[in-house]
Specification:
alpha+beta; 12 helices; about 45% helix; disordered N terminus; two-stranded antiparallel ribbon; about 400 residues; globular; 12 strands; single chain
Length: about 400
Amino acid sequence: MSNYPNRKKRRRKKGSIVLFVIELLILAALVIGIFIYAKINQGLRNIGASSNSTAASTVSDENLNTDNVTVNSAATVDKVMQGYTNIALLGIDARDTDDFDYCNSDTMIIASINNDNGEVKLVSVYRDTYLNIDGDNYDFQKANAAYCNGSVKQFLSMLNTNLDLSITNYLAVDFKAVAVLVDDVGGISITMTKDEAVNLNNYCVETSKVTGMTYEKLPEADGTYTLNGVQAVSYARIRYTAGNDMKRTQRQRLVIEKIVEKARGQGMGAVNEIINDVFPLCKTNISNAMIVKMAAQMIGYYAIVNTTGFPFEYLGDSPYINSEYLVPVTLATNVKELHKFLFNDDNYTPSETVLDYSYQMEQNSGYTEDDIDKAKAASVIPAAGSEADSVK
């Protein structure tokens, strides 16, 4: 009988030790989390604040307000899309202007994150895509003109109304932001062809001048090269090989994949340098809390699983409109395919707005459903042997 109280004490003591260890682990996790949050928060205060960046806009107008971005009514109630976080990524060509808010958005990427499993899909909208860039009127132009004409509000509204999306968050960068990011992760390794290496060296001259950053000329031969920031941006700019802009967007998505892959391998240690160097060169309306959450989840949760370009089927050289336009054939058909790709929605029905735009585009261009097979044949991107060919 006299031993029972001692056993009880020993059990209680052992239980207390286990509990204490668990409490220490929780406390350590909280301290680390608070530290990461504090460091990221400090960097967040510098977003777009660099005196050397055109991202530090002094313009104040309604076009910079994303609270009233246009979304088709059908998209606001779409239950499938509610399971995803969608963000627009913009690469801004601000070489010939000091105004970061009104220039061509030559890189337009939809990043769609599955909230259930962290899978990320990227869709490039080709810069010459024939879309209605003004939801209040019929103004069919190249998609990259929307940001130039009405800044981020018109750009997001264009994506939403033409593609039945509900995107309100964006991240805009210029050449320098991407170059600095690549340098901060220690460069990226890419396999390319001789033609790409030649074109990369040519683009590096201007990219270096615009960013004020240096580079070394690559051997003009097939090979795998570790690219620094200037070289990576120049690689992503190449469009004078087989495939034109469609091949260029493949390269852009590959660069993003390589950066994410490199950053994931470096863990949270890479965060400090990036938030101090890159954040001041960016412009975004994503909340601090959301960025903190995404930064923490990037390391072991998010994974890019597939990428592609939009439109899927298209034709150029219309006899009735500017021959440079890339006309979706048809818009309604392409939007259905887009929702299947992004959201695994096999039964998506385009909204009345999309159907209306699609009809108007058919009337303007002369391309109808009868041309879909022709468009499919014309939309095959030629392989040029580079690593970018592996991107879907």
